[in-house]
Amino acid sequence: MLVQPISARPRQALWALGFRPFFLAGSAFALVALLLWGAVLTGIVQPTPAGGMLAWHRHEMLFGFAVAIVAGFLLTAVQTWSGMPGLSGRPLQGLFLLWLLGRVSWFVPLPSWLLITLHGAFLPLVALALARPIVIRRLRNNYPIVVLVMLLAGCQWLTLMGWLNQDERWQRHGVLAGLWLVAAMMSVIGGRVIPFFTRRGLGNMAPAIPRPWLDRACLLGSIALPATYALGLNDAPQPLMAVLFAGLGALHVVRLALWHDRGIWRVPLLWSLHVAYAWLVPACLGLALWHAGVKVSPSLAVHALSVGGMTSLIVAMMARVSLGHTGRALEVPRSVGWAFACIQLAALVRVAFVPFTAQALGLSVLLAATGLGLFVWHYWAILTQPRVDGMAG
């Protein structure tokens, strides 16, 4: 491993590996985007991004915020998987600039083709950066990660084509398919790291018992769902879809039960991961009930996944990965524990209380923004300063 002097300038440290700029900017962007969305909902401001605020909110919370964190995580993890240097320096700066231009482009008068190109080029370039070391090292177990990134790019293109053609149905299909692809990534990556982090965090280094049937079943079910959204099979209740959602929810329950150790509740970096993954269960079961004809709003299940599952797992993973890759002890202050709790409360309020009172929506936004704000406040220095052990990364 390359050694970097501890006196390296913070500006250099920021571009050492993908997790640094994308975790920091992605979480800060999500904070600003949530506050702006809350201001729009309360009538404080009325900005006019291309396509309208609803299209902007749908696209940006997934393809702006979540995709930035996914890119930062994978561009960092591939160095560990392959033993080859990860993207850094000017190539990383160029990729980050492309992402940043995408965020700004909604509010700047641009030709449609240029806006779509700015947004649509990011994920294919991330996939290319991932594929090179994975193919060179012949890491066949990681080929599905590259495929998932390219499928996510396809969902974004479907969303953008819906925006270009003013077709709300295409936009909805693309975003929901992309959201469930992120859920598939949560299943794949969570299945690898959550049990490992749990054993390590509790001092139990006994090897995990492999259960390939469970991992494969979760992967197949998770991949099938985005395809059904892209094809429009979830536009109306379908009994077969109820079975698929219920089955996948049951598989997630089995996983959580096998991973569980009562010691996790003493460690914020552990319980945050388990509780975030657990939101996949109500997301699946809520849609299973809707497809079975029960009068529940599918939007509640979608927000159980997007706020409870995706956002809370993102914050938990960023907190853990940032410490590990900067050479710091795997411990967080009470403020970060509160950040995890605020995201969880935001999801609970959004799913359980919004159907009964309009004020709950604003409270959910404020709780989520508070959680993200606490993360940015604590991790700003960690992500911009060199590793404490003097190593590169």
Automatic annotation (TrEMBL):
Classification lineage: Bacteria, Pseudomonadati, Pseudomonadota, Gammaproteobacteria, Pseudomonadales
InterPro entries: NnrS
Pfam family, one: NnrS
Protein name: NnrS family protein
Transmembrane segments: 21-41, 61-78, 113-131, 143-164, 176-197, 217-234, 240-258, 270-290, 302-323, 335-354, 360-381
Keywords assigned: Membrane, Transmembrane, Transmembrane helix
Source organism, top-level taxon: Bacteria
